[in-house]
């Protein structure tokens, strides 16, 4: 059982760095930072700072994309993180979400993502890669420090692709009352059977919003902005009230407030759907949800912590480590 923390950089840089230190001190296994250049602070600046401020935790990119980051830039950045951290980096890649939406750009296709992962991986290994403008290579790479590349996925096609080309999968979206859907994990395993050079061990992470409190209503309220983005997935299995909320969010969702605790558009999210998309509630409830995910086959639960009303995000990180994790270990 691994636990990670993903910090979305809507808070200031110094606070992010302080939280990064706390993640390691509290015993978490991994620290992840997001990549959305117009709404959050710069990923690689803060990941580099976190590399020097920590000594043990895995440092994850959660996640970049082929549209706003050229593969040569990504390879150079992640290999620099590898140098600073002693090889603790892990590269998450997806099709692109707010990073491309705020630029008015289309998401990558699965074909583009496949080519991107191959190019980045080869550059990190020190190989020369052909391009339409001539061959390129990374001059300072260390092939022994090539990071694992994990694929962000929610639907069956992306889950299968994660198994086909990745060293792991980051599962996002609907997790359900009984934990991660096993049919999604089966798609990863199916893709792994088709992987030309399968990794020795495929890592499956579940990225999920989290808030814990003896006051269940407070915890549900805290994660509502995160659930608002989950409701918009066409793959989510929703009841009538949630479907009505999704319809309203199509016109009210503010991309610049994506998963921000102050997002006003989140008010339409009904309470009863929140447990389908988040680990939220009392410590006992959170522990049951987390255990169900591990039982389904997840290797790491990566919490995306949300502050309770009048509190801080750090307090949620502390509470989860203190009140939830020990109930599973």
Gap from first CA to last CA: 8 Å
Total domain modules:
1
Looking across the biggest beta sheet, what order are the strands in?
A: 1-2-3-4-5-6-7-9
Q: What structural class is derived from the secondary structure elements?
A: alpha/beta
In which range does the helix fraction lie? 40-55%
Major sheet size, sense and barrel closure: 8 strands, parallel, barrel
Total helices: the number is 11
The averaged pLDDT comes out at 93
The low-pLDDT segments are none
Shape type: globular
CATH homologous superfamily identity: Luciferase-like domain
Nearest-angstrom radius of gyration? 19 Å
The CATH architecture name reads: Alpha-Beta Barrel
Number of strands: 9
Protein model, in words:
The chain has 329 residues and is of the alpha/beta class. The protein has one domain (2-223, 276-327): Luciferase-like domain (TIM Barrel), CATH 3.20.20.30. The chain has helices at 13-25, 43-53, 71-85, 98-101, 110-124, 156-165, 182-193, 216-231, 240-252, 283-296, 313-324; strands at residues 2-7, 30-33, 58-64, 89-93, 149-153, 168-171, 203-212, 278-281, 300-305. It has an eight-stranded parallel β-barrel, surrounded by eight helices. The protein is globular, with a radius of gyration of 19 Å. It starts with a strand and ends in a 5-residue tail after the last helix.
């Amino acid at each position: 059982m691994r636990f990670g923390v993903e910090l979305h950089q809507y808070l200031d840089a110094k606070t992010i760095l302080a939280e990064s230190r706390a993640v390691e001190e509290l015993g978490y296994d991994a620290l992840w930072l997001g990549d959305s250049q117009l709404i959050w602070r710069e990923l690689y600046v803060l990941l580099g700072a976190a590399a020097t401020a920590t000594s043990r935790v895995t440092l994850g990119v959660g996640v970049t994309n082929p549209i706003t980051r050229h593969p040569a830039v990504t390879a150079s950045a992640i290999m620099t993180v590898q140098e600073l951290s002693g090889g603790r980096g892990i590269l998450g890649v997806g099709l692109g979400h707010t990073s491309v939406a705020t630029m008015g750009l289309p998401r990558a296709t699965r074909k583009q993502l496949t080519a991107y992962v191959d190019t980045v991986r080869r550059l990190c290994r020190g190989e020369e890669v052909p391009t339409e403008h001539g061959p390129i290579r990374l001059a300072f790479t260390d092939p022994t420090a090539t990071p694992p590349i994990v694929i962000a996925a929610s639907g069956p096609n992306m889950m299968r692709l994660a198994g086909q080309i990745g060293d792991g999968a980051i599962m996002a979206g609907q997790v359900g009352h009984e934990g991660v859907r096993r049919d999604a994990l089966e798609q990863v395993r199916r893709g792994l059977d088709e992987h030309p050079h399968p990794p020795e061990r495929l890592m499956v992470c579940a990225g999920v919003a989290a808030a814990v409190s003896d006051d269940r209503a407070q915890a549900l309220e805290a994660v509502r902005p995160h659930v608002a983005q989950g409701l918009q997935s066409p793959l989510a299995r929703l009841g009538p009230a949630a479907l009505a909320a999704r319809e309203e969010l199509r016109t009210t969702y503010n991309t610049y407030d994506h998963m921000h605790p102050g997002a006003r558009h989140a008010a339409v999210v009904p309470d009863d759907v929140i447990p389908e998309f988040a680990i939220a509630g009392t410590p006992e409830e959170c522990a049951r949800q987390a255990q169900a995910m591990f039982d389904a086959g997840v290797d790491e639960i990566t919490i995306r912590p949300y502050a309770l009303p009048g509190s801080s995000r750090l307090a949620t990180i502390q509470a989860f480590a203190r009140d939830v994790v020990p109930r599973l270990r």
